[in-house]
Amino acid sequence: MKPPDVTGKADAPNSKSTIMNEFYDLFEKDNHLKPDFNKTEFESLDSWDFGWAILEPINLAADKESEIELSKRFSPGQKALYFFWYLDGEVTNGGFIQFYWNENRKYLPAILKGLKLIGDNEMITLVDNAEKVYLKHIQKFETGNSQEDFEHLYNELTEFEDLDLKYYEMHDNTMSLIEKYAKQNPNEFLNLI
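That's the DNA mimic protein DMP19 C-terminal domain-containing protein sequence above. Prediction below.
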């Protein structure tokens, strides 16, 4: 797998951004972000088209700081969709290595909580296994800081390859479970009009 062109450095297990994840758990019910959404479109869209259609109106954060405040306005179901999109975007673009390299580890608790909410135990196991591999090789992520260091991870950490392949096989099911949850709980996501 050819690594994408990215820069960044992964979070250490107790780094500031990992600890900040506590904020992603809060839900200010009185300030719930529920955009208006066409009922016919809600009922007719499916899979990734459905996921993106209900994500787009809440995907409003201008930066990581405003994202913390914004996520407080998300219901548990909205958080499941929102934070899964981080995982999916990274892993389908550059594998779990890219997910960790681009400092998205801080979202893992929110991702896992969302996966639990929708009942995706297989994906939880896969993400847990990726985390174990990451922790086993954390030093390689911490000491790297260049594009070249990032590219070497793909050659050195082949354990991620099988996890990436499994992810590609499973992520459509995760989106189906998110869709099912959203369609059973529309008031948690939108105001249907």
